[in-house]
Design goal:
Layout lengths: L14 H4 L8 E5 L2 E4 H15 L6 E6 L2 H13 L3 E6 L4 H11 L3 E4 L12 E7 L2 E6 L13 E6 L9 E5 H15 L14 E3 L6 H13 L3 E3 L5 H10 L4 E4 L1 H9 L11 E4 L6 H11 L2 E3 L2 E3 L4 E5 L2 H7 L8 E3 L4 E5 L12 E6 L13 E2 L2 E10 L4 E7 L4 E3 L2 E3 L1 H9 L4 E11 L3 E10 L8 H9 L10 E4 L13 H7 L6 H5 L2
Parallel strand pairs: 1-11, 3-4, 3-5, 5-6, 10-11, 12-13, 13-14, 26-27
Antiparallel strand pairs: 1-2, 6-7, 8-9, 15-16, 16-17, 17-22, 18-19, 19-21, 20-21, 21-22, 23-24, 25-26
Helix pairs in contact: 2-3, 5-6, 8-9
Length: 510
Amino acid sequence: MNGPRHGPEDGGLAAFLLDHDDPADIPVLYWKDGSLTRGELIEAAERLAGRLGPVAGLPVACLVDDGVRAITAMFATWLAGGVYVPVNARLTDTEVRAQLLAQRPALVVVGPEQAGRVPEGIGVLAEEAPGRWTALRPPAEPPEHRFGEDEALIMRTSGTTGDSKPVVLSHKGVRDGIDTVIAKLRGGKAKGGGRPPMPNLIPTSQALWAGSWNALFSFRLGAPVVLLDRFDPVDYADLVRRFELRSTILAPAMMTMLLEDPRVTDLGRLRFVRSVTAPLVPDQARRFRDRFGVGVLNSYGQTELGGEVVGWTASDTREFGESKLGAVGRAHPGVEIRILDSERRELPPDEAGEIWIRSPFANKADLPADRVADGFLRTGDLGRLDAEGFLWIEGRVSDMVNRGGLKIVPQEVEAALRRHSAVADACVAGVPDARLGEVPVAWVRVAAGEERPDEAALLAFLREGLTGYKVPVAVRFVADFPRTEIGKVLRRELVASFDGSRSADEMESR
């Protein structure tokens, strides 16, 4: 790279790539058809950093359609002192335009097919061929505001319950969060010993915080990264066997895809998967373990909290693995959890309420003021802490159905539906009702090879195990649910699509 490097004095997150004793010819980045060594990745990042120009303190975006380009752009941005902004290329043109105009980056790094999606007035640097960059539009005039040296990247929340929001994360906060997880997994040791870390297969896009965080986790650990930008069950199983992986990450929706794909008959030497991005119900964890002989460990975090803040250790797994199946684990060191009721009173163990968390890894200056009290962030999730300190996620506050004053947690009803032999998956959400305010409706995906059950019989099945007011007033059968890229169901789209052809009185009388 020509000229001095910018950013924090300690190198910030760029040090995850640069400050390793491993030989430069060791592969650190793999994908289905290729690989890069550490030396090659450093050279590519430095070359791109030199093309970015004077961007210290300015946002630099990457329209992410390729994980290798995204990781290169991420490290290049930090080498040049900029703030990295990944934008998902799978969004609509309208969404891409809105995110770029909201952030106003100095430049957008793109592949050759994405350049036309960048609004006028924003610079474009296109990778015409691997490592060959062409400036298609000069950088935008720099704004008066520049970010501080410790501000590293701007990620967006998932947007499952509304519009996604930008969150600024710091070099120090992300590094401290990752180091805490590594130390916890190693039993308190900051550095490992013995055999080198095995590769980390990342089956999520690098446009998402789950993808970026796990890539950074791997570089910090000294583990090679294996990219799978678009999840495919067969490709995933092939990569698990090819790299002889014993552990990896998966989103719950990906586990379901693996369970239901007849082409996937085994997962090689895999022994554990860590569930990420969305709550995992115990029944799903058991099905995955029983089918593949692979244990499932949950975890919990939010973008605003700086990443993962609750998880499992190896010792917890040995002691509590079966009895706590479905819990997301215990708080990482330095993380505090409170379970509060609607009056913000702390609840005793095993009583469900709203989860509030104080995280040392969060960028406190960027936390939403309307969701913070005494340094604790209102997560919007419902859960409970048991006597041993394990956190159990019950659902989202915004997902709760208020049926004439009676509160229904959809996840409880969904779990009951999945216990029916003909149901592969289910989603429950509240739809508007003139008399009761809201009533629950279920959307059901039928299991492969099963006949679609009769709606009345399915509702009768639910009444055997649920209090009457929790039973949905109607069932809609679907081929699949609308989802985010990481598999979270978009309940609001289901509600918007509800035809409402029968009144609540008519439906309740069935």
